[in-house]
Write a structure and sequence with these properties.
Structural class of chain A: alpha/beta
Oligomer: heterodimer
Number of helices of chain A: 8
Strand order of the largest sheet of chain B: 2-1-17-16-14-3-12-13-15
Number of helices of chain B: 7
Number of strands of chain B: 17
Distance between the termini of chain A: 21 Å
Structural class of chain B: alpha/beta
């Protein structure tokens, strides 16, 4: 149960699902640190949480930058007094607008892998050892159905999310005995900036509100212990 | 004289250690792969989870004199910190040979790399290079600026500039250390998993490991300076559990021994969950109340580490251990080989 006494660090925490999760957990009394590149938006999200009595600190930074990993992790540890839960919600599409793989620049694939796989891996590496010697922790990967289904034009994103899911499974298999748990959660399609970039002409009334998804996502994380370590969960199916 | 390791351990370089049994006066040399087997089910390893700050800040005074400021401890919540001022130059020069620092009086403003500014709020009366400073800014904005401006503290025995990730242990948490709690470099994830499988417990504390050398005779004579520590309740419970079950408490690094014994010294001989500052020094014959064994890097007699070892084993056997290490071609300092001082038989509960 994430609430009072829990320290949570969320990447992609300036807007969308990440910001929604920060608000939900801060409302329940958790200490929350959020990271994103856009410092202005990030600070506004943190300030909004503090204005309603929550604990939130903005840690601006680029999760894809190699040099940023240890400074970010150390700043999160210092700001929170230890990180017990890491939620990796920052994502990049790759080519914008989306393109078929044959028309995707290699650099765009590299960018998707950097933001969605390698950067999160660095942050995970930087915090799981501390979790292990503190009695355990939880790392949540925000996934997508594009990790499983080969949607045309979603190749860079889908391949990166498939790798991200598999990283969670293998981490779990390796460090389960140390008390560190991993989950991948597919939240379903949401009305977010990322979705608007991917599908500009989508009918937004058909998309989930990220704030509402955050409530159900948080409830699912609370039940994390009933799932196998490393499990991949789909939020939509859980909602019923 | 043991040669210092000049760079972080390459993955293919075998780490070895000298095992000292202080009671049997026995010495053996073993590869790191034999380390986990030295511990018995029920033993407890305590690690220092302090992350290492980039505590070397290059800059200049307001009137243009070059300085290097090396923090001696973590940055306080109010944006103040203590540091040692060096003159022009870098880590490539031996600290003893560095250009004399300009004298910084109270109120002197300094401009550090990246535009980070600070001013001197106090100067140690006996040691003019030891200053208390207030940074402009505080909180995460200040932490961020220090990470942008700072470099890891390092020394002339290193071959090249160290990256921040090369001075972190795998379990690094809050950035309180200004030099890495480097005994922990020997531990990796595979070893944590193997220890768990063997029934050897691991617990943590946080100790603000300070500078090991400054080249200033008056400051070096006072090292280690008082250092901040935090021992969590879970670690106090883990120590009690080990004691009850006849397990041994093994400090991973001298900073852990200092924090545990310093904590007990502050609390009438009992280990309690607490945050504090310790000036406790362990030396020859010092009474230990908590720690039974020590894992450490290899350091020469004269270093403060060696003095601390002598509370675990006699000086003659430690000197023999270093001679054995040297003869075996082992290397010393933070990226080097190791020393394990641990009695073979479990210590009876005190």
């Amino acid at each position: 149960m994430i609430g009072r006494g829990t320290n949570v660090w969320i990447t992609g925490g300036g807007r969308g699902l990440g910001a929604g999760l920060a608000r939900v957990w801060a409302r329940r009394g958790a200490r929350v640190a959020i990271t994103a590149r856009n410092a202005t938006e990030l600070e506004a999200t943190a300030a909004g949480i503090r204005a309603t009595g929550g604990f939130a600190v903005a840690l601006p930074g680029d999760v894809a930058a190699k040099e940023a990993a240890h400074p970010l992790a150390a700043r999160a540890q210092e700001a929170l007094g230890g990180v017990q839960v890491l939620v990796l919600a920052a994502s990049a599409l790759g080519p914008e607008p989306l393109r078929l793989l044959g028309d995707t620049d290699c650099e765009d694939l590299e960018r998707a892998l950097a933001v969605n796989v390698v950067g999160p891996f660095r942050l995970t590496k930087a915090v799981t050892g501390a979790m292990a010697v503190s009695g355990g922790g939880l790392v949540v990967h925000v996934s997508s159905d594009a990790a499983l289904t080969p949607y045309p034009t979603w190749g860079a994103y889908g391949a990166s999310k498939a790798a991200f899911d598999q990283l969670a499974r293998i981490w779990a298999a390796e460090v389960a005995s140390l008390g560190v748990r991993f989950l991948s959660i597919d939240p379903g399609d949401m009305d977010t900036a990322l979705h608007r970039t991917a599908v500009p002409d989508a009918d937004r009334s058909q998309l989930q509100d990220p704030a509402e998804v955050a409530e159900r996502f948080a409830a699912l994380v609370d039940r994390a212990c009933v799932h196998e370590n490393g499990a991949r969960l789909v939020l939509a199916a859980e909602a019923a | 004289m043991i040669a210092p390791a000049r760079a972080p351990r390459a993955p293919d370089r075998l780490l070895r250690f000298v095992r000292v049994d202080p009671r049997a006066h026995a010495l053996t040399v073993a590869p790191r792969s034999a380390l986990v087997a030295q511990f018995a089910p029920g033993d407890l390893l305590v690690v220092n989870d302090a992350a290492t700050l980039p505590a070397s800040l290059a800059g200049h005074t307001a009137d243009g004199k070059a300085i290097e400021l090396r923090l001696t401890g973590p940055i306080e919540a109010d944006g103040t910190a203590t540091g040692v001022v060096f003159g022009a130059g870098t880590w490539r020069a031996r600290t003893e040979g560095r250009a004399l620092a300009p004298s910084l009086g109270r109120g002197t403003r300094v401009v550090l790399a990246g535009g980070l500014e600070a001013h001197v709020i106090a100067v140690d009366p006996a040691r003019a290079r030891l200053v208390r400073i207030a940074f402009d800014g505080r909180g995460d904005a200040l932490e961020r600026a220090v990470y942008a401006a700072g470099r890891p503290v390092q020394y002339a025995h290193h071959a090249s500039e160290l990256d921040l990730w090369e001075v972190q242990t795998i379990y690094a948490g809050r950035p309180w250390a200004v030099e890495a709690p480097s005994a922990g470099f020997a531990l990796d994830t595979a070893m944590l998993v193997a220890l768990r499988a063997r029934g050897v417990a691991v617990a943590r504390l946080t100790h603000a490991a300070g500078l090991s050398s400054t080249g200033d005779r008056a400051i070096d004579a006072a090292l280690p300076l008082p250092e901040r520590f935090e021992v969590p309740a879970a670690t106090v419970r883990a120590v009690s559990r080990a004691r009850r079950c006849g397990g041994r408490v093994i400090a991973i690094g001298t900073s852990v021994a200092r924090a545990l014994e310093g904590n007990a010294a502050l609390h009438g001989g009992r280990l309690v969950a607490a945050c504090g500052i310790t000036d406790h020094l362990l030396g020859p014959g010092a009474r230990r109340r908590v720690v039974d064994g020590l894992w450490s890097g290899l350091h020469e007699p004269g270093a403060s580490h060696f003095a601390l070892w002598t509370s675990f084993a006699s000086e003659p056997i430690l000197r023999r251990a270093l001679a054995v290490a040297e003869a075996a071609g082992m290397v010393g300092e933070e990226f080097g080989d190791g020393l394990l001082i641990l009695p073979y038989a479990p210590v009876p509960a005190a």
